[in-house]
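subagent[fold] <- orchestrator: predict structure for attached chain, return tokens only, no commentary.
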Amino acid sequence: VGSHTMQSTTTTSSSTGQYLRLRPVPAAIQRVALYETRNWLYVVGSTNDGTKCRLLKIDRAPPSPGRPRLEVEDGGVVYSESEIKELLIMLDDGNKYSVNKYSSHGLQQVASAFGIVGFVRFLEGYYIVLITKRKVVATIGGHVIYKIEDTFIYPISHSHKPTHPEESKYLKVFQNIDLSSDFYFSYSYDLTLSLQCQMRTYPGPTPAPCWKFVWNEHLLKLFEGYVNQGWITHIVHGFVGQYSIAPYRRANCDYLLTLCL
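subagent[fold] -> orchestrator:
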């Protein structure tokens, strides 16, 4: 995917970013919960402290010639923690029914995660790909960088059994991509741009990412631009490492060296 290098050298007292002129760390969506009913998937996203929440609604009907694309609804509403809990209770109560041979047990939680990698489709319906485990590997000016440790893929369609004979084959090929190996992301720091670029453009409009480094650009093409930007997580493939060094061998003169390749 090409190479990209950034270096940050600051004293230990600057680990909070007092010498780096970067954008403030926003209250981004860092926690995601996936719920399902027979006809809909619901994705609840919240800030790390859970005080601000958003909701996505995904239609589980399979794609058809007249409806080929993924149907995602973002109401644009910001909920409090108590409001989102009340809404989930209402959705649970409203989806409990039994009619003839069809029944629904209400709203069921499927997974807890730390972000959405994107959506993928092979020969049949779409799948959602989630980041379920992360690890902090570096901090630049207060912006935390994470390494993906594990992911989870789940079918959008309520019918989990593929009918096309090749569907399972393509799904297995995709699952063979080890996203826990050298894939990184940040909720607030654009890893596709150099540190110098981000310092040079602040204050001012947020620059667009360098798309050739966004590994999941294709997985986001039916999602990004249709929902609030807080849902979007750009993944990069490469290496991120942060080390404490003392180049001058003096007391209280440790430096943080951050490398992103």
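orchestrator: received. Logging for downstream: The radius of gyration is 21 Å. Residues 1-18 have pLDDT under 50 and may be disordered.
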